[in-house]
Specification:
There is one protein chain. Helices cover about 20% and strands about 20% of the residues. It has eleven helices and 18 strands. Helix 8 packs across helix 9 (about 405-415). The radius of gyration is 23 Å and the shape is globular. The two termini are about 35 Å apart.
Length: about 575
């Protein structure tokens, strides 16, 4: 093993990870005058090199059909050649394993400054009041040690700073926030909205972190619709452009990129005193000393680092005297289905790119009649359709049906824009059989033991996914369309664990140190100068996408930390 190269200075705060949690911590703390050193396992982001938002398929000889490792839709990058940045479910030299009791599990890692926020869907939903106290409602899982009122001021701060579109609807399942004006619905969305209302399902403007008025030096969205390719203007939220780059300009943030964290070190008091990391450029091990450590590497990566950090003071892993680190892993329940709607044939063509993704969505509508549904909790519905930019494979179905020559073109023109899609995103109840642990036999290219995953859906989730399927079929049928079979991920009636990329809950918070690892401020019970500010602290995984809640929790923890440092408590 290479010798550890120490850095002699003691840093005020070291943050590991630069996604939504780590970037929010860096932004808030530097704004409060605290010096922050951030470790990122990937390279610094260069938007001009990475982003392809205004490039056309014909700009490349391969037309976007690149070859590479196995991706979500086949070979190449997980979401296609034009998507931004590094990362994927498979990384060269960084394996993970799946236990024999688990059919499959996918773990997406993003290795670049800004993490997943460079290319995520930007759906930004507040948790509801009942989402924080789920046990009180149905006796399943656990309550959070905080409530909606505790987090609401930090939802306000996060939404105000990053910018979120939406509308005030007064729905308990979809709390209103501080919104920019939403973009208007597209033609296919109006047809979907009409069908949803016939079924008693609300269909309202989507809440997305894409701005429609200029804020903080960022111009309003120009509706190119290519958010997954990156945004040179920074009109959508990414932690890199919105938080990391401005924090660097304060002079109080240092970013050490290509730094793969190996282990946390502690002193005789049990508190953290540093981090050992591998410099990926040289292969050398280095140590950075710190007054405070904030983990924000993603739920599973943070759990891995804690479990790999066994010290004399923490024999089961740093912060793990409760034994819950790695336990109660959750992903979002998913089921996707689409269909072709003849009513959309022959419409005048128009640019339906919009503000990236759907302009409408359907929040959960069944919480008042939960007992009649046959499953606990619920889900929201994301929708798709319109005249997206064609790419490789877009008209494969048309070619199969039409045969040859001119007939293929005619069929493609008829099919273009007639497909709609529905994606259910629902709550998973935490269970004992879903967790991650250190594999005793496998290490990555840096010699760091990897994670082994165990993951099981329960009947709660399978029944929920069945309800999704029935609902989507009815929606498509009401539109006069024909539902089509789901893709590989959903062929078994429910999504593969990890495939929705919403892993949460491996270092959960709670009031009792015997059954939780963190308090309500994301602070470790076992080490007062250790905080975990990604989704690992989640106690449950409501049907809302987790990023906005990560922002809010990290903001709250950062203000608490800054005051504790000022007063000398830490």
């Amino acid at each position: 093993m290479p010798s550890v190269q120490p850095r002699t200075e003691v840093h005020d705060v070291v943050v590991i990870g630069s996604g939504a949690g780590g970037a929010t911590v860096a932004h808030v703390l530097t704004g409060l005058g605290v010096r922050v050193t951030l470790l990122e396992a990937g390279p610094m982001l260069d938007p001009y090199a990475e982003f392809k938002e205004h490039r056309w398929p014909y700009d490349y000889d391969h037309r976007g059909a690149d070859e590479g490792g196995r991706g979500y839709f086949g070979r190449g990058k997980p979401f296609g050649f034009f998507t931004t940045t590094s990362g994927g479910w498979e990384l060269d030299g960084e394996p993970y394993t799946v236990a024999d009791d688990t059919g499959d599990f996918w773990w997406f890692r993003s290795r670049i400054v800004g993490g997943r926020t460079n290319h995520y869907g930007r759906i930004s939903l507040r948790f509801s009041d009942y989402d924080f106290k789920p046990y009180d409602r149905d006796g399943l899982g656990w309550n959070w040690p905080i409530g909606y009122d505790d987090l609401a001021p930090y939802y306000d701060k996060a939404e105000t700073f990053i910018g979120v579109v939406g509308s005030r609807e007064g729905l308990r399942s979809a709390p209103d926030g501080i919104f920019h004006d939403p973009p208007p619905p597209k033609a296919h969305e109006l047809l979907i909205q009409r069908a949803s209302r016939r079924m008693g399902i609300p269909c309202i403007p989507n809440r997305r972190a894409v701005i429609t008025r200029a804020i903080n030096g960022r111009p309003a969205c120009h509706y190119c619709g290519q958010c997954g390719r990156g945004c040179l203007t920074g009109s959508n939220y990414s932690a890199s452009q919105t938080q990391i780059f401005p924090a660097l300009e304060t002079g109080r943030l240092e970013v050490i990129d290509q730094a793969m964290a190996r282990a946390i070190t502690t002193g005789e008091s049990g508190n953290v005193d540093g981090v050992v990391y591998v410099d990926k450029r040289t292969g050398e091990e280095r140590r950075v000393r710190c007054r405070v450590l904030v983990l924000a590497a993603s739920a599973c990566e943070s759990a891995r680092l804690l479990l790999n950090s066994k010290t004399a003071e923490h024999p089961d892993g740093v912060g793990n005297s409760s034994g819950v680190v790695g336990r109660y892993l959750m992903d979002t329940v998913g089921y996707d289905i689409g269909g072709t709607v003849p009513a959309l044939e022959g419409l005048p063509r128009y640019n339906s790119d919009g503000a990236g993704g759907a302009h409408l969505y359907m929040p959960w509508w069944g919480w008042e009649r939960q007992e009649a549904l046959g499953f606990p909790r619920g889900y929201h519905i994301e929708i798709g359709g319109g005249y997206g930019m064609p790419g490789i494979g877009t008209f494969g179905g048309s070619a199969r049906r039409a045969g040859y020559g001119v007939a293929i073109k005619e069929q493609a023109r008829r099919d273009y824009g007639t497909r709609v899609a529905f994606a259910g995103r629902g709550e998973m109840i935490p269970n004992e059989r879903s967790f991650c642990e250190i594999d005793p036999d496998v290490v990555d290219r840096y010699g760091i033991p990897v994670l082994r995953f165990h993951f099981q859906w329960s009947d709660h989730e399978r029944l929920q996914a069945r309800h999704m399927r029935e609902t989507f079929n009815e929606l498509i049928t009401l539109m006069g369309g024909e539902p089509q079979p789901p893709g590989r991920r959903d062929a078994a009636g429910i999504s593969i664990g990890g495939s929705i990329i919403h892993e949460v809950g491996t270092v959960r918070m709670g009031d009792d140190p015997r059954t939780s690892a963190l308090n309500g401020f994301c602070q470790a019970h076992d080490a007062r100068n250790l905080f975990v500010c990604d989704a690992a602290g989640f106690v449950s995984n409501p049907d809302k996408n987790p990023t906005l809640t990560i922002n809010a929790l990290a903001w709250r923890a950062s203000e608490y930390l800054a005051e504790a440092m000022r007063s000398g408590e830490i």
